Amino acid sequence: MSETLPILYVPSPILRAKAKPVGPGDEDRVRALSAKMLATMYAAPGIGLAAPQVGELLRLVVIDIGPKEAPAPIVLVNPELVAQSRELAVREEGCLSLPNIFGDVQRPHQVKVRYQALDGSRREMEGEGLMSACLQHEIDHLNGVLFVDYLSALRRNMLLRRLAKELKMKAE
Ligand code: K1U
Ligand code: ZN
Q: The whole model's pTM is what?
């Protein structure tokens, strides 16, 4: 198992920045980083992780929504949302960068995502339900968007204030 990385919490400004595309020549760095991201995601535990959450402003995401007994990791390099259903679904989301904060988010029920695999090959995948929410949540991270941005300002501010208080108490 690879080493794990510290996860950044809100209000880190890195979580609000736009990540840069992975380019030619980044292969070794991205392979090593994705292994550490998967180890970090499994240890958290979580079902997804985007590179900015571990301080790397790169368009790189890892996902595994499967059961613990049958790991099915997916590494998405430069993922792009290319299609989405009109049908919407509401699901409760959490975020490893917002510990113990949960909220109901409405998003397209189905999406199609184009990305590159670690070997540079071009791929497409479709997801619905939890996979769709996870793909959208992780791609949002690459654009500096957090799930709380979809909540009302009142609810978002209440949750962010609660988190700030909890993190301050933990640090004392
Ligand atoms: O990106 C992240 O912060 C990870 C996040 C992904 C996510 C969760 C829910 C909906 C959409 C995207 C998480 O993994 S939060 C933790 C979580 O959902 C979970 C943890 C353990 C078991 C099952 C789920
Ligand atoms: Zn998140």
A: 0.98
Report the SS3 class of residue 103.
Answer: strand
Q: Has domain 13-171 been given CATH number 1.10.3720.10?
A: no
Is residue 62 within 8 A of residue 54, CB to CB? The reply is no
Distance 41 CA to ligand 1 centre (A): 9
Tens of pLDDT along 75-121? 999 999 999 999 999 999 999 999 999 999 999 999 999 999 999 99
Neighbours of 40 (CB within 10 A): 22
Q: Ligand 1: which residue has its CA nearest to atom 12?
A: 134
- Report the separation in Å between the CA atom of 157 and the middle of ligand 2, taken as the mean of its atom positions: 17
Residue with CA nearest ligand 1 atom 22: 46
